[in-house]
Amino acid sequence: MVETQQTSPLPPHTKTIRLAGPRGFCAGVDRAVKIVEVALEKFGAPVYVRHEIVHNKFVVDGLAAKGAVFVEELDDIPDDAPVVFSAHGVAKAVVAEAQRRNMVAVDATCPLVTKVHIEAHRHTREGYHILLIGHAGHPEVEGTMGQVPDGEMTLIETAEDARTVTPPEGIPLAFATQTTLSVDDTAEMIGILKERFPKMKGPRGEDICYATTNRQQAVKAIAQDADLVLVIGAENSSNSQRLVDVALRGGAKAARLIADASFIPWDAVDQSLKIGISAGASAPEVLVDEVIAAIAARYPIQQEDVIVAEENLTFKLPTALQD
To answer: How far apart are CA 158 and CA 186, in angstroms?
Structure first.
């Protein structure tokens, strides 16, 4: 961990801002946003995007202003229009429908989500029933469950689910997880399942992605002794919601999820001297800058950078866009 150190006495009412690192955009989100931008350059507007490309209104609105049209289903898209599948991944039936309609489809699924899909195919091919740890209704979970025939995957949402799930008898078990879950909660559920089903097969490496893990570790670091932790992200962003949970468990007296600077809870900020700030993996850095600037406009601040890991991973664009 790397932190700046306080070197002189602080003026009264100074807010100490502890800025988590890493934070904000991950490689998968950065790639997905670029895919939409490059598709607009290549095909011209409109380019349709099935579901929000990532869970952040600021990002979605910015792409919409450039000509992206966000829809929930392929039925809302003309056959001759290009479509981008969101970073969360889609079910095989969606891909098949796009192919049947001869649509120009570009897949922006995060490669780390694709890894989970490949594992699901492998487990099913080898005759395993899959226990998927994740949140019902989340597009990533819907996409992953849509990789296998109905009935061959069971969703586990809580530790209680792990204790009570009754999988099909006589069929070997494997497990997979959503990539944006709480590391600690997921470890608890996996532990329960392994105790109940010792022969259960796991993934090759972790399913929870590096970015989720790193951001949770950074929030744990800034949460220690914090009066308040602000997590910048969307309400429908799983990884952002988990950062709030992690902050509270990590020792923060309070933690809030805010979309941008206009949602800063000033009553809580007024009463806080040590304020941690982070951002979910789909929140751009400009939103972090605006939150810090808004606080600095009201109070003297001292900023400490708390860095637990360096990230330099990048993902290539799909072949269809590389030219």
So the answer is: 9
